[in-house]
Amino acid sequence: MMAVYRQVAASLLMVLTGLGFAAFVDFWPLLVIAFVGTLNPSSGDVSVFLPLEHALLAGGVAGHERPRKLRVHGGDGSVDVGVGRASGAARVRAGARNDRGHQQ
Q1: How far from 33 is each of 6, 11, 48, 67, CA to CA, in Å?
Q2: Residue 35 lies in a domain
Q3: I need a surface site. Which of 42, 54, 55, 85 has the fewest CB within 10 A?
Q4: What whole-number distance in Å separates Cα of residue 33 and Cα of residue 20?
Q5: Using CA atoms, how far apart are residues 95 and 20, in angstroms rounded to an integer?
Q6: Cα dihedral sign, 77-78-80-85
Q7: CA distances (Å), 35 to each of 15, 25, 51, 59, in order?
Q8: How many domains does the chain have?
């Protein structure tokens, strides 16, 4: 039950970080928001959600099933990231073609 509260708190912090970056333009407030918020400068998942996800996954299966479950979870996430990046690139290319007057 405590993990659910942590996920809700982490989600709220993520939303507040995004709103803070949208609301401020001065350096010092942005620096404070970046330091306290959930800014992720890397390409991997180093957010506050990762340890919570792993704890929930590990607690939900028998001991001998944990490595397989975590491997599948990590593999699914990698595939999802790849598909998201590819679809984003396709949309950017389609938009660039439309900007030049070409049809889709």
Answers
A1: 19, 15, 16, 36
A2: yes
A3: 42
A4: 7
A5: 29
A6: positive
A7: 15, 15, 20, 31
A8: 2
Indicate if 24 and 65 belong to the same structural domain. Answer: no
Question: How many whole angstroms separate alpha carbon 48 and alpha carbon 10?
Answer: 7
Helix extents (H) in the chain: 2-23, 27-36, 49-59, 66-99
CA distances from 43 to 6, 36, 82 (A): 23, 19, 12
* pLDDT tens, per residue, the chain with 104 residues: 676 787 788 888 888 988 998 999 999 999 998 888 876 655 555 666 777 777 777 777 888 888 887 777 777 777 777 787 788 877 777 776 665 555 55
Tokens of 19: 């709103």
Of 2, 31, 3, nearest to 17 by C-alpha is 31
Q: CA angle, 69 as apex, 53 and 81 as ends, to 5°?
A: 60
Token readout for 26 is: 């001065």
